C-alpha cells in the first residue's frame, strides 16, 4: 500500500475516527485504568492525552515521581512508597493462594503485579501493560492476581484490525483471534475463544458478529486432524451460543470474498461476509495480524486480552502513544 504524504494524512484521520467514536462512549462513564509502566515516554504521552481528553482516569505507576510532568487528572503512584497498599495486597494474595507473606510481598513490589492487584482489589477498573514487558509476564500477573472469569478456562485475545479501505468498503473493521495468548487450543478452547470474542466484539463495536473458524480447508475439501479440530470447535461454539452465527471450517478467501464463498460454501450464513476471524492456533493468528498490519497498512489495536474477571490488556513493545490511547479506550469500554 503506497501512500503520499497527503494520502497518509487522510488514512490516519480515518483510523483515528474509530477511536474517537469509541472515546465518545467512554466519556459518559470514565473508568480508572492503571498503567504500571509509567516511566516509559510513550505511556507518559498517552496518559496525558487521555487525561486532557477526559476519556479515562489514568493511574500511572512509576519508580520515581517528579521525573516527568503529568497532566491534571493523572494519578501518580510509587509502589515502593505505598506501604499500606503493599501490606493489603500482600496479605490478600497470601490468603488467597495459601503462600507466605514474604513471597506475596516480593510479587506485589513488581509494578505490573501491583497494578494487577489494584484491579483485583477494585482500586482500578482495568490495566494496560506490556510495552516494557513480555506478554507472558502480563498474562501471568493477571492470572495470579485478577483470576479467570467464571465461564473461562483460558485467557485468549483478539485484535481490532482497522482498514482505511477494504474490498471497496471504507473504514472497515475485522476482528482477529487469538493472536497473543493460547498457543495450541483444542476444540473446546477454540470454541470458547470464538464465543468470547464474538460477545466482546458485539459489546465493543455494536455489530452483529459473523464468526468464521479458519482452516486450510473449506467444508471438507481436505481431511486432517487439524481440520477435524476446527469442525468440532464450530459444533461446540454453536451449542454454547446458538444466537451467534458461526461457521467453519473455512479458508480465509471463502470467509471474506463473496465470489469465492458462492463457489466453496454457498449455503453458509457466514462465508463471504465474516467480520470475526478465529485462527486455529497462535502461529497462524499472530502471523496473520502482523502481515495485515504491515503489508495491508491496517491499524492493529490490541491484543485485547479476554477471559479474566476484569479487563487487563497487553501492548506490543513497539506500541506508540496513539496505540496505547486506543487500547486504553477499548479497556475502559470492556470494564
TrEMBL record:
Keywords: Acyltransferase, Transferase. Pfam families: PTA_PTB (PF01515). InterPro entries: P_Ac_Bu_trans, P_AcTrfase_dom1, P_AcTrfase_dom2, Phos_Acetyltrans/Butyryltrans, PTA_PTB. The keyword Transferase applies. GO terms for molecular function: phosphate acetyltransferase activity. It catalyses: acetyl-CoA + phosphate = acetyl phosphate + CoA. Residues 19-332 form the Phosphate acetyl/butaryl transferase domain. Belongs to the phosphate acetyltransferase and butyryltransferase family. NCBIfam families: PRK09653.1 (NF007233). This is Phosphate acetyltransferase.
Amino acid at each position: 500500500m503506497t501512500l503520499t504524504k497527503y494520502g497518509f494524512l487522510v488514512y490516519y484521520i480515518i483510523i483515528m475516527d474509530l477511536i474517537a467514536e469509541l472515546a465518545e462512549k467512554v466519556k459518559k462513564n470514565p473508568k480508572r485504568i492503571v498503567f504500571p509502566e509509567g516511566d516509559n515516554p510513550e505511556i507518559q504521552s498517552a496518559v496525558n492525552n487521555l487525561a486532557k481528553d477526559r476519556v479515562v482516569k489514568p493511574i500511572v505507576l512509576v519508580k520515581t515521581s517528579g521525573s516527568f510532568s503529568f497532566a491534571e487528572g493523572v494519578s501518580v503512584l510509587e509502589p515502593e512508597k505505598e506501604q499500606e497498599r503493599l501490606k493489603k495486597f500482600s496479605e490478600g494474595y497470601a490468603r488467597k493462594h495459601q503462600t507466605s507473606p514474604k513471597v506475596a510481598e516480593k510479587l506485589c513490589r513488581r509494578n505490573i503485579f501491583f497494578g494487577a492487584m489494584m484491579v483485583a482489589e477494585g482500586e482500578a477498573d482495568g490495566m494496560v501493560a506490556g510495552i516494557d514487558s513480555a506478554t507472558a509476564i502480563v498474562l501471568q500477573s493477571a492470572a495470579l492476581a485478577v483470576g479467570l472469569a467464571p465461564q473461562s478456562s483460558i485467557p485468549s485475545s483478539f485484535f481490532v484490525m482497522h482498514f482505511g479501505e477494504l474490498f471497496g468498503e471504507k473504514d472497515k473493521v475485522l476482528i482477529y483471534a487469538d493472536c497473543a495468548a493460547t498457543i495450541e487450543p483444542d476444540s473446546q478452547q477454540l470454541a470458547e475463544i470464538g464465543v468470547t470474542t464474538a460477545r466482546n466484539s458485539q459489546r465493543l463495536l455494536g455489530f452483529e458478529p459473523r464468526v468464521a473458524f479458519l482452516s486450510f480447508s473449506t467444508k471438507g475439501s481436505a481431511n486432517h486432524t487439524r481440520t477435524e479440530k476446527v469442525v468440532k470447535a464450530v459444533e461446540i461454539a454453536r451449542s454454547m451460543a446458538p444466537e451467534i452465527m458461526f461457521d467453519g471450517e473455512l479458508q480465509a478467501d471463502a470467509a471474506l470474498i463473496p465470489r469465492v464463498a458462492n463457489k466453496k460454501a454457498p449455503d453458509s450464513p457466514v462465508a463471504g461476509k465474516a467480520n470475526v476471524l478465529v485462527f486455529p492456533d497462535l502461529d497462524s493468528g499472530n502471523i496473520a495480524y502482523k502481515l495485515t498490519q504491515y503489508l495491508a497498512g491496517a491499524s492493529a489495536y490490541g491484543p485485547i486480552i479476554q477471559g479474566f474477571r476484569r479487563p487487563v490488556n497487553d501492548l506490543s513493545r513497539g506500541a506508540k502513544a496513539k496505540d496505547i490511547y486506543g487500547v486504553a479506550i477499548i479497556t475502559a469500554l470492556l470494564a
